[in-house]
Predict the 3D structure of the following.
Amino acid sequence: MSERYVPLRDYALIGDGRTAALVSKTGSIDWWCLPDLDSPSVFAAILDADRGGAWTLGPEGPAEAHRRYVPHTNVIETTFTTPTGRVRVTDVMTIGGRGLVPLRELARRIEGLDGRVTMRWRIEPRFGYGLVPTRIEARRPFAVATSGNSAVAACTWDAGSADVEGGGVAGRFEARAGMRATVALVAAHGEPLVFPARGDVEARIDATIAFWREWSTRLAYDGPWRDAVVRSALALKLLICSETGAITAAATTSLPERIGGDRNWDYRFAWIRDTALTLDALGNLGFRAQVHASLSWLLRATTSTHPRLQPFYTLSGDVPRHCDDVGVGGEQFGGVGAADASLGFAVAGEVEREDRAWPSLGRCTPLGARAAEPMQEEERRAAAGAQIVQRERQLAVAEASDGRHGSR
């Protein structure tokens, strides 16, 4: 694997229930899609270090990095130790707020802990998986990158001069003990771009930490390895679309299943099998409202194709289209030797059989009894219809099996 690519084990996931980003141990954000989980990327250096785009942030010289999730949150905290001092970087995808807020916001708080550390940062947005033109220009008060009806603004405070150069925005500053700098990327898609005040960004960082901690307190589990169970539940939560309840199988696309392999599909879809397993886990942990929301979404999606059943659906509840193979990595795509990215999914060839999806849906429907709210009439009819079709298919399989046995 090329040294220009970070090992996958060195990434951590952050998100806001609408989209997600991958942060490497070195401080580089190498994956971020806008405006949603299944949208095209703005950062995709995890797939193409040359053209994918990234946001790097870290000490100018050699440093040792130690990181963790802030306990009971989906917020990353990385401490860099250098020969001259220590600095802490907190990475947050902020969640909401009062008043006029950005559509999406990715914020980084830099705090000097000891001594002095020279920090460098560089933001290189590349919209559309790095395949469409991106324009970057200095505006007042912040630099802005645009492509079509999408835009991101690089908002900086006490992080040095933000210089537009070489297809990116870059800065350099000294982190001293007791000081704090903030850099935030705010995004818009088909709407005005909001330039936030620093105090509002800082408040949303703190509010997001509080949100995740409060969410974790709802977890009803007192058995062994509770910290690991909480961390697993938090990871699952990042794969759930907060606006619809759809559950995606992955937050990324096009990573080969093995080094040198070509099975680099887009898994940002709601698989019935994965949804069933996730709902079962969340139900056992006491998240009844989430079970209700996600089960309702699933039943509405499957009703749209009844009596046929797709093994998976898009996050908007539609039938997936065939994949588009896009050469975004050349000879060293993703650092693992795959030639092209598959965006979308090869529905005709690389799917779970329909008859395997029915049992998964059948396992989902009884979970409605564990939901916080009773199912609506439309949802009850959909659930009953799913169970009837499943029983019919089971009978058909049994009859076919008896016929084969009888002819022997």
Summary: The two ends are 54 Å apart (CA to CA). The domain at 8-217 is CATH 2.70.98 (Beta-galactosidase; Chain A, domain 5). The longest helix spans residues 377-407. The chain is about 25% helix and 30% strand.
